[in-house]
Amino acid sequence: MDNAWQRSYTSACQKVNTLPIKKAHGALYPRTCSNNVPMTSPRPLNSVDAKANVNKNSEGSSIMASTIGVLKNAVGLVTGGASGLGRATVERFVREGAKVVLCDLPTSKGKDVADSLGDNCVFAPTDVTSENDVIQALSMAKDNFGRLDMAVNCAGIGIAFKTYNFNKKRPHELADFQRVLMVNAGGTFNVIRLAAGMMGENEPNADGQRGVVVNTASVAAYDGQIGQAAYSASKGAIVGMTLPIARDLASHGIRVVTIAPGLFDTPLLASLPEKVRKFLASTVPFPHRLAYPDEYSHLVQSIYENPMLNGEVIRLDGALRMMP
Question: What CATH code would you report for 71-316?
Answer without folding.
Answer: 3.40.50.720
